[in-house]
Amino acid sequence: MTQPDAFLRRSPLQHVLTEALAPFIPLADAAIADGRDTTNARARLALADLSSLPRLGFKGRGTIAAMKGRGIAVEATPNRAFRQEDGSLCLVLAPGEVILLGNLDGAGDRLATLEAGWRIEDEERTYPMPRRDSHAWFAVCGERAPEMFAKICGIDLRPHKFADLAIAQTSVAKLTCIITREDRAGTSFFHLLADSASAAYFFACLRDAAAEFDGRIIGISALRG
Length: 225
What we know:
24% of the residues lie in helices and 28% in strands. It folds into two domains: 4-52 and 133-224, 2-Layer Sandwich (Gyrase A, domain 2), CATH 3.30.1360.120; 55-99 and 108-132. By secondary structure, it is an alpha+beta fold.
């Protein structure tokens, strides 16, 4: 059985998930919870911690042009996400800021290459931001997700109000949060990025809000399924 403590990089929710969900599986330079859902919670309401997956930000006036030059599918449209061929996402928060979310397989080579290939000497007016360190990453999915969010967020996230690939930079449970909708196989799917230092509090608020709808914690395999 994989021991999360064996890896230098760990989710800020490791102790919570160790108690609530097991086992863990290795994923590149970290371990990720892999408890399997046996009650189809993913279709109704489920929470997952994706903080072990790769992610990277870029910021600066030349960011969009720099991303296009590196083969990223993106446009200068704020609060919009763009799907990539490998299943990853490019979130455009502003004309000069993006966050790249790796795919659910945990492949981080492309992001690592992007970060390593940046040079200040190129004067592209963009620079990398270590979003894997600054932001915890959660997923909320299922048909009851918009109802759950209505308890802790002022944005209406119902499908006819919050479209696929839309982004809201808002407050959830009184914490600053970036919400991205990315529908998967007909299931409402939301990515949440929040301050990693507040990850335990934030996840506790999500669990409390989800309890009314029988929300469950699931692992990466159930989420991929």
